[in-house]
Design brief:
The protein is an alpha+beta fold. The chain contains 15 helices and 25 strands. The strands form seven sheets. The protein has a seven-stranded antiparallel beta sheet with strand order 3-8-7-6-9-12-10, sandwiched between helices. This is Nitroreductase domain-containing protein.
Length: 626
């Protein structure tokens, strides 16, 4: 038997697939052919009912995935029994035979990077699109930041963090002509190891001028689920979408340093994104009915996540006509696409529930005229002196994920409040509720905030240890109070700024509790504080659609990126925690049902530096794919 088709079933019991229509009882609709009464069912009503049934099936699949990939004290989500190092995926996608155009390295010809903290007040004057500024955008967002080496092991780090440093996120630029890059509009894949662009296709003039303001371009993001599933199994779909959020925030911050604004073009659907990035050329992956192991090169396809419009800050308000934009993107299918994707692993494991859920969470095209520009809202300030004088470039390129926390570093409560002010979506509100995402970098997202933060405070000087809650959408406050434990106090702590909706719930030492909830990891208890990100969950999915499921994780990733940068900006460190016991977290808060769900954890504190690990420059790096 040819190895390509030799897929070995793994010994896991699976429930019947939710996409079997027989599992959903159909409502019988009487049709009276001779009746002319108003109760007669019309074709439009039948179409509407079929659409509702379809949406119910999609939502059921997403909820099934979320439930089945929860960790508990007695059982972890399904994954590999060990790491298959021989088949660890190559972290660097390349399109073999496509033209490779080098980008510039620091110092750049017109190098100037503003102070990190200044960007939360106002954006600098926008720079023009050029070879240099495009180079800076990628260098400060998605490039390599260093190489690490110890013993016989060498591996790379990137500006954008990733669960397990596995980097499932790929990036593309869709751009008008740029001197010394391309004399025509082009689509290129970003190759971070080389800090170069692989030109995949060129397109005729007129595309950008038809739809977007002058000096605009697009960044496309996609995910290779296999890279994350290799280590984490079925829970990998969650982690891939955390990483998309981190990448969105990384691009948004780097763009802000150049005076550019960023917005997710969330009216586009899966098919438009696939065409835009040239991903429809990947072979279609036929999802097996259960987890299987074997040689499946088609599992290395890229799932298109989103397109980010990058445009000069301060431009006049403009709208995107998504129907016309979709028509324009449809022409990309006929472009001359260059390059063949490299193979990442010889053998694979397919965790089928990941791919069924990705199918269920595909977003359709939303045909409306959508406004893109929102007014820039500065963030609140209480302790500007907490920040070190790092430029944006210094900060984003020195960001690291702490492996351990030291267990003794403390922070002042004013620093704590300042960090949380930069975590608020609406910025400084002057008495208005936080709802809309107007502040950097949350303004890149196209929906109102749906993610809150439960805070386990351990070592904040002047603030009692205990459990706190940051309400990031104040329209949810009453529902949160009703959903959580009746004994919670919900009082603002001493010295808390008026426009920071932070509440003390309960006092007490919660170090052991936070450690247990985060899969017994000391790092959750040894920092200054740890965070559980709580999403307004099932009501959001029912109201907007199953396609909001990954977007909730994106929002947690954006929030996590801010926590990373804020921690480094005040001289400490942070780490994202994907492993936590879902329902025990809910039990601590008193949450029942699926109205609110914990999606991501984080810890902030003083890092322990392993001096056995040697740091090497990002460029030029060693000739290894790691």
């Amino acid at each position: 038997m040819h190895l390509l088709h030799h897929k070995i079933p793994l010994p896991f019991h699976r429930q019947p697939l939710l996409f079997n229509r027989k599992t959903i009882p159909r409502r019988l609709i009487p049709i009276h052919s001779m009746s002319t009464s108003s109760s007669q069912t019309t074709p439009h009503q039948l179409d509407q009912q079929e659409d509702e049934e379809k949406q119910a099936l999609l939502l059921a699949q997403v909820l099934k995935y979320h439930k089945e990939t929860k960790h508990s004290f007695t059982n972890y989500a399904r994954g590999p029994r060990g790491l298959d190092w021989a088949n660890q995926p190559n972290p660097f996608r390349r399109y073999v035979s496509s033209p490779l155009i080098p980008l510039l390295h620091s110092p750049f010809p017109d190098e100037s990077s503003p102070l990190y903290s200044s960007l939360f007040k106002t954006l600098p004057f926008p720079k023009p699109i050029s070879h240099s500024t495009i180079s800076q955008l990628f260098y400060d967002s998605l490039a390599l930041s260093a190489w690490k080496s110890t013993g016989f092991s060498t591996w790379s780090l990137r500006v954008n963090p990733s669960s397990g440093n596995l980097h499932p996120t790929e990036a593309y630029i869709i751009c008008p002509p740029i001197e010394s890059l391309s004399d025509k509009g082009f689509v290129a894949h970003y190759a971070p190891k080389e800090h170069s662009l692989e030109i995949r296709a060129q397109f005729p003039p007129g595309f950008f001028t038809r739809f977007f303001p002058e000096n605009s371009f697009l960044i496309g993001l996609s995910s290779i689920f296999w890279r994350e599933a290799w280590k984490y199994g079925e829970r990998a779909f969650r982690y891939c979408n955390h990483d998309v959020g981190h990448a969105i925030a990384a691009v948004s911050m780097a763009a802000a340093g150049l005076g550019w604004d960023v917005k997710v073009l969330d009216g586009l659907g899966y098919e438009e994104l696939e065409k835009l990035m040239g991903l429809e050329l990947f072979p279609k992956f036929n999802i097996p009915s259960r987890p299987v192991k074997g040689t499946m090169p088609e599992i290395e396809f890229e799932h298109p996540d989103c397109a980010l419009l990058v445009f000069p800050s301060g431009v006049n308000e403009f709208e995107v006509d998504y129907k016309e934009l979709s028509n324009g993107i449809s022409e990309f299918s006929g472009l001359d696409w260059k390059g063949k994707p490299n193979v990442l692993s010889k053998e694979h494991i397919c965790w089928d529930i990941i791919y069924r859920t990705a199918e269920a969470a595909k977003k359709p095209l939303t045909m409306f005229n959508g406004s893109v520009v929102n007014p820039f809202q500065s963030s609140g300030t209480i302790s500007e002196s907490s920040y070190k004088d790092f430029s944006l470039r210094e900060l984003v390129r020195k960001r690291r994920s702490a492996v351990d926390m030291d267990g003794f570093t403390e922070m002042a409560k004013e620093t704590f409040y300042q960090m949380l002010l930069h975590c608020m979506p609406s910025g400084s509100r002057d008495g208005e509720n936080h709802v809309r995402q107007l502040a950097l970098p949350f303004r890149s997202l196209a929906w109102d905030s749906e993610v809150h933060a439960a805070l386990f405070v351990h070592r904040v000087v002047g603030l009692p240890s205990g459990l706190y809650f940051l309400v990031r959408n104040e329209n949810h406050l009453d529902d949160l109070k009703k959903a959580t434990r009746a004994e919670f106090k919900w009082v603002k702590p001493d010295g808390c700024p008026d426009d920071l909706p932070l509440y003390e719930l309960s006092r007490g030492d919660c170090m052991e509790l936070s450690k247990r909830l985060s899969c017994h990891q000391d790092i959750a208890s040894d920092g200054c504080f740890s965070v559980g990100m709580i999403a307004h969950f099932e009501p959001t999915l029912r109201n907007k659609g199953s396609w909001m499921y990954p977007r909730l994780f994106w929002e947690t990733g954006v929030l996590g990126q801010v926590l990373y940068l804020e921690a480094h900006a005040v001289g400490i460190s942070a780490t994202g925690i994907g492993c936590f016991f879902d329902d025990p977290v809910h039990e601590v808060l008193g949450l029942k049902g699926s109205e609110f769900q914990s999606l991501y954890h984080f810890t902030v504190g003083g890092p322990v530096v392993d001096k056995r690990i040697m740091s090497l420059p990002a460029y030029p790096g060693p000739s290894v794919d790691a």
